[in-house]
């Protein structure tokens, strides 16, 4: 260091050059100079950064390095305190090579400088006196030794927070803001500040500002949530689902979720306003989502789930063709809505009854004075019953029409009694204070029309039949939108609803629905679902009928084909030919072990014989979860490969429930009052909120929400005739408008109900279902020829009639029987007169005695 340079502690880290002005030298950062040192130059480690400035300042490389730093205007600063501190710990252009000790000295000098900045002559005077600074400091230190210290004391709530406490308080403010869905400005509200002051007078010193809350603290919490997501997904076989949504700003938003073991994680939110919606564009977008997720989270995307719109469907199918190892399927929760549209097309009378029921529900729900008249009639008849407004109001909280129709049928006696006794009061309450003759007459006609509908017995009969037919469809929808539902339960739901309609009393409904359900089933990747059912140790082949023709050897070949397909990912380009040959040999030996393990599994031999012997004990501890069984089997080398494959199949997610919950959460966070909330910040808030809810559930801070019972226990046993199907959900069925994964995560979400309350809205719903069906028909007809020509002969696809149409086989093991089974109860048949006459003619031909009551209604029911 130059002898004339100021003796600041910072000069230990700088080289003093020529005078830059009257009193200040050029200061060259030794850390920056060291980066320009030529290779092979010996340096002493005893000096800062290995450079002895006094020893090497005359060398050519040192001079060249200083000149280069001066030319770059980086690493050379003015030899004053502030510029040197700014170079080491400044916010902009901070030296990346400075050591921790250099930064500590700079921070101490910066924080200890509380004197006001001088200007003009004061600066020059301060620079001239810099040489005497150590002496002044020593003198001041000596003087302070003889001064009596003044102790500052704090009492009770006035004790200030330390740095650790302030950091914890600020982090908790962000967690509370996201968890309670508060705007970031709440922290600066005067009443909130007054509240914290009442708690503790020093609280405001620790509270962050709105900007700090929405920037630094939110970024920190989002990084923690991302780290937890990365830990949960690392090395897992996951299902990628994506769906679209429009926010209040009319932005097209797409969410990307990864699901594993019944738990969904939001990983990305994209703005798709200008993106193409055709098949190739959607396929490219899906592939980018898959590549990004696998690279970022080090997981394996084994399945892609989207909705069945035109572009999404074409893109999904193209991804399945280009990447054979990715299983592709439409959302199973949407299949129930599509089958509902199929039923309304096949049964126009049910659609008409639904139209009238929607008018009645809308009329009751939209006119408060009318409901009050019904309530009065209800209390007059039976004071113990609940008010009609409560019962009708509850119908709007379900998104399945079946529940609303059943609830309306339950209210039949109440409604009819009120109309009989208080018709004039109802009409007067509907008209209210309206004075216009034309409007008054129109309102009177509407009220009388609703009253006539309520008194019409034919309407109630059709509505009850429609509600009974819609119940298995609603049951299937509720099952398939639950996060805990496995692929084997999905195939059972399809089989159950097919069997239900195969026994329908109306021939045209029976034939039409069987055909349409088969069509829906044909679109799925059947091998995935069938083998998920077979690899359930509590099911195996017991669910299939005698027409299924499922022999073990054929299933073994199909299983190896599916296993080979799921493991057909291309090897890295860096692999040598020897490595590729070794990989092929390993795959061949693995497939052989899978074959042998599958044959033992089907025959209940080897380790499976021991499992069957202690199955009841295992079920008493782990329940009927098949994944728990296969996890135990991974400890055995001969079964490990098949166990890993079975766990992967059984943990696949088949719906977009995670995406729907994300959109519900976004709809709450971004409202018309907060429409300036950016997409990236909204994504961080959703990730943090989901992470907090998982933590709350893990630590038991929230009560687990129980599912609503939309179906009567006696009715559930008769809904679907597949054995033990009533236990497909392992508990109560969750309503579509409630918590779809049983965790209570979306209990605060506000969703728009799909229950329509007018005939016009009902017709729009029916038209939408028909339009979606027609679009699907056109696409399938266009692809049928090409698909059939290039499809190789295979065991799949296989119709539900072949798989489940025959006589159901009884469970082969006693434990499966003890788990409970539902007998195949045929539905009561309605006979027409022509059929009964044919029966009588046949009986007469065979010489049997005729039944005199056959045509009098004493036997089976009949219809005209």
Mean pLDDT: 76
Rounded radius of gyration (Å)? 38 Å
Strand content: 5-15%
Helix content: 55-70%
Largest beta-sheet details: 5 strands, mixed
Strand order of the largest sheet: 6-5-4-7-8
Q: Determine the structural class based on helices, strands and strand pairing.
A: alpha/beta
Low-confidence stretches: 1-6, 44-50, 114-139, 383-387, 389-400, 723-757, 782-792, 808-831, 850-864
Oligomer: single chain
Describe this structure in words.
By secondary structure, this protein is α/β, with parallel strands linked by helices. Among the domains are: 9-144, no CATH class; 159-318 and 658-700, no CATH class; 486-508 and 521-654 and 707-746 and 797-815, no CATH class; 831-863. The protein is built from 36 helices and ten strands. Strands 6-5-4-7-8 form a five-stranded mixed sheet, with helices on both faces. A three-stranded antiparallel sheet has the order 1-2-3. The chain has a two-stranded parallel sheet with strand order 9-10. α36 links the parallel β9 and β10 (862-863). The longest helix is centred in the C-terminal third of the chain and has 32 residues, at 759-790. It is globular. The N and C termini lie far apart (113 Å). The N terminus and C terminus are likely disordered.
